[in-house]
Amino acid sequence: MVSHGSSPSLLEALSSDFLACKICLEQLQAPKTLPCLHTYCQDCLGQLADGSRIRCPECRETVPVPPEGVAAFKTNFFVNGLLDLVKARACGDLRAGKPACALCPLVGGTSAGGPATARCLDCADDLCQACADGHRCTRQTHTHRVVDLVGYRAGWYDEEARERQAAQCPQHPGEALRFLCQPCSHLLCRECRLDPHLDHPCLPLAEAVRARRPGLEELLAGVDSNLVELEAARRVEKEALARLREQAARVGTQVEEAAEGVLRALLAQKQEVLGQLRAHVEAAEEAARGRLAELEGREQVARAAAAFARRVLSLGREAEILSLEGAIAQRLRQLQGCPWAPGPAPCLLPQLELHPGLLDKNCHLLQLSFEEQQPQKDGGKDGAGTQGGEESQSRREDAPKTERQGGVQPQARDGAQTPKEEKAQTTREDGVQTLEEDRAQIPHEDGGPQPHRGGRPNKKKKFKGRLKSISREPSPALGPNLDGSGLLPRPIFSCSFPTRMPGDKRSPRITGLCPFGPREILVADEQNRALKCFSLNGDYKGTVPVPEGCSPCSVAALQSAVAFSAGARLYLISPDGEVQWRRALSLSQASHAVAALPSGDRVAVSVAGHVEVYNMEGSLATRFIPGGKASRGLRALVFLTTSPQGHFVGSDWQQNSVVICDGLGQVVGEYKGPGLHGCQPGSVSVDKKGYIFLTLREVNKVVILDPKGSLLGDFLTAYHGLEKPRVTTMVDGRYLVVSLSNGTIHVFRVRSPDS
User: Fold this and answer.
1) Would you state the torsion angle of the CA atoms of residues 646, 650, 656, 661, taken in this order, to the nearest 10 degrees?
2) Do residues 560 and 575 touch, judged by C-beta distance below 8 A?
3) Domain contains 532
4) What's the pLDDT tens digit per position in 140-182?
5) pLDDT tens-digit series, residues 693-712
6) Percent of the chain scored above 90 by pLDDT?
7) Model confidence over 586-631: pLDDT tens digits?
8) What does the longest C-alpha to C-alpha distance in the chain come to?
9) CB-based contacts of 85: which residues, under 8 Å, 6+ apart?
C-alpha cells in the first residue's frame, strides 16, 4: 500500500494487484471506472448491476448506471496502457517457444518471421537483428527507440516504453488518441476529430494535460490534507477508545477491590460485635453464678433448720420440746429476719442496631460517575501542550483519591460527609487501614473511644456498624484489551509446601515445572539432579529417574513420557526412567526451554533463536524462527509454553519482550511495555481461556496478559507471599503453581471473572 504522500512507481503498479479485478480476481478485461474511481471488468459490472443502480464492492457507494448500460462508464485508459505493457512483455508471436519477428513476414513474404532479438518501443513490434538494423536506417523510423528484447522482457525499459506508448481509440482500431475536445471532454483520434467534433475547439493531449494538471494537483493536495485530518481523527478516536478500555479495566479492578474491602470490613465488624456479645454474656454469667451460690447456701441453711424443728415437734416429748424451744425459736426468728433473696440484679439484654444505610434499598455503596473525555492535543514548540499537561496533572493531584481512581465513590445518604466520617476514611500512606485503626474509629455512645471488648459493660451500649473505605492504587500499566465485563481472573490461595526431601544433599533449585497426571506436578530440581513428583496438596509421590550425571533444567510431560533439557541435550524418558532418545542442542545457549504441545505427542524446545518441535520418535517435525528470518534480530526464548489455542508463548530476553506466535512462527502478539518494570520477562503459563501469566522475579510479581499479549494488570504480588518467584506452570487450566527461589511452592486457584 502506497501512502498518500508519495508517488507510486510503475514497478509497484505492475507487480501489485492493481491490475486485478476485485470481483473476478483475474486480470482486468475492458476496464471500466466507476465515479468512485474503482475499476472493474465491464462484464463483471454487468453481472453486478441491479437495474439502474450499482453498488461498488469496495467502498459500498451506490452509483447510477448510465442509460446505455455499464459500457458507458469511462474506460480506464491508464489501466489499459499498463495491461498492454504487461501483455507485450509476457506474450508475442511465438515460434518453438521463442518470440518471432513481426516485420519478416511483411518483407520476405514468409508466414513466420525469424527469431526476435530486439523491440521497437514506438511501434511496439518485436524485431530480428536484420530488421532492427534496417529499422534504424529508414527516414520514418530512424528516431524510434529500438532496445534489446531480453532487457525489455525483464522490465528494464518499462518507464521508457510507457512514455512512448500511445492510447488506442476504441472506435477506430489502429488510431492513437491525439486530441481532447474541450466542450465534450472526450479523447479523440484523427478520425474522431474530422467527424462529429470538427467545429469543437480541441487541444493536443500534451497541451491539455499541461492546462488541466494544476487543477487536479490542487484537488489532490486538498484530499491529502483531508487524509491527514482523517488519520489524526482516527488516531484520536483509537486513543480515546484505548483510554476508555484502560479506565474501564482500572475501574473494574477498583470495584473488585472496593467490594472485597467492604466485605473484609464487614467481617471485621462482625467479629467485633460477636466479641462484645461474648464478653457481655460471660460477665453476666459470672455475676449470676455468684448470686446463685449465695442463694443455694441460704436455702440449704434454712432447710436444715426447718427440718430440725419439724423433727423435734413431731418426735420429741414435752420435756424435750420445751428444753429446745428457746434455741429453735431464736434460730427461726433469726432466719426470718434475714432477706431471703438479694435485690433484683440488673439484666442488660443485647440488641442489634443496623446502620440505616444497610436497610435502605436506595443506598449505593458504589456508584459510577462519567466525565466527558477532553481531546488530547499535541504540544507545540511554544510548550503549550506541556503546560496544559502540567495543569491537568496538578488538577488530578488536587482531586480526591476516589475520583482519581476512576469515579467509584461511596454514596452518603445526604450527599455529604460528616467530620467523623471523614476521619473514619483517613488511611495510612499505603492506602490501607488496619483493623486496630478501624476499631478505634467506631464511635462510643459518649463520643469517646470504644472500650476493649474484654471489659465488663456497665450500661446499655449502641453499636452502629460503619463500612470503612479500603483504598489501594491499582497497577499503572493496565492494558486496553478486556474480556467480557473487564474484570480480571483473581487468585484464590490453595496451599503451600516445601520441595526439599530428606535425601536431598542441597537446597532445592527449581528450574522447571509441568503438570504430571491428574492434580500432580513434576518438579525439576537442578541442584539435586532430580525430577520430583508432588500432588497439588503437597504430598510427595516419588521421583522419575534421570540418567546418571544429568541435571534437569526445563521439563514437560507428554502422553506416556517425560521430556527435559539438561546442558546442551534434549532427553525423552519413560516414567520409570528409561531413555527413549536424546538429541544434541546448540552450545551457544545456556539453558533450553521445553514445552509440550496441546496434543501431547510432540515437544518444543528453544534453540539459539528458533524453536524446534520433535515427535515421540525423536524426529524433527518442524523448525521455525519466531517472526521469520525478516524479523528484527534474533530471539532468545529463555522460557517457553503453549496455549490451548495452539500458540507458542515465550519470554524473549534478546528483545526483552513476551512474544506469541502461531505454529508457523508468525508473531500474533508481543508485549514489551512499561508493565515489565524494566525487568527481563520470566516464566510464562497459560490457562484454559488463553490468559498469559508472566513472572517478574525482580519485583515479586506475576502479571496477567490477554491472549493477544496486552497487559491487563497484576495477578500476584508480594501481598500474596511471593518472594523471588522463579518458575510457574498451569495445572488443569485452573491451578497456577508458583515456585520460589527458596524451593517453596505456592498453589493458587485461578477464579475466572464469570465464575
Assistant:
1) -20
2) yes
3) yes
4) 887 788 888 877 777 777 777 766 666 778 778 777 788 888 8
5) 999 999 999 999 999 899 98
6) 21
7) 766 778 899 999 988 999 999 877 899 999 999 999 988 887 765 5
8) 184
9) 14, 158, 161, 162, 165
> Residue 123 has which C-alpha cell?
511501434
**AA letter at 533:** C
In the 8-state DSSP scheme, what is residue 214? H
Give the residue numbers spanning the domain of 565: 508-686
CATH code at 62? 3.30.40.10
Residues 6+ apart with CB under 8 A from 4: 223, 224, 227
- Rg of the Cα atoms in the chain: 46
Q: Please give, one letter per residue, the 3-state secondary structure of 608-661.
A: CCEEEEEECCCCEEEEECCCCCCCCCCCCEEEEEECCCCCEEEEECCCCEEEEE
| Residue 298 resides in a domain | yes
- Paired with 490 in beta bridges are 751
Q: Considering the domain boundaries, does residue 696 fall inside one?
A: no
What is the number of residues in the chain?
A: 755
What would the pLDDT profile of 4-42 be if each residue is shown by its tens digit?
444 455 555 555 567 888 888 888 888 889 988 899 998
> For residue 636, is it within any domain?
yes
Which pairs count as long-range contacts for 440-448, CB under 8 Å and 24+ apart, including other chains?
A: 441/466, 441/468, 442/269, 442/272, 442/466
Same domain, 537 and 679: yes
From 333, 366, 382, give the residue that closes a domain. 333
Rounded CA-CA distance 361/211 in Å is 77
700 in the Ramachandran plot: left (φ > 0), alpha (ψ -120 to 50) or beta? Answer: left
Q: Shortest CA distance to 645 belongs to which of 707, 706, 705?
A: 707
**Whole-angstrom Cα distance, residue 178 to residue 187?**
7
Same domain, residue pair 520 and 655: yes
Neighbours of 684 (CB within 10 A): 29
> Is this model's pTM higher than 0.90 or not?
no
Q: Which residues contact 739 (CB under 8 A, 6 or more apart)?
A: 499, 510, 513, 523, 725, 726, 727, 728, 745
Residues 6+ apart with CB under 8 A from 34: 40, 45, 54, 56, 61, 63, 73
Question: Within this chain, do residues 84 and 225 fall inside the same structural domain, yes or no?
Answer: no
Please report, for the domain that includes residue 611, its CATH number: 2.130.10.10
Nearest residue to 671 via CA among 693, 688, 687:
693
Do 87 and 222 belong to one domain? no
In the sheet that 579-584 helps form, which strands lie side by side, from edge to edge?
A: 555-557, 562-566, 569-573, 579-584
Structural domain tally of the chain? 3
Q: Which residue has 510432540 as its cell numbers?
A: 602
Q: Are 560 and 596 within 8 A, CB to CB?
A: no
- Among residues 91, 125, 151, which one ends one of the domains? 91
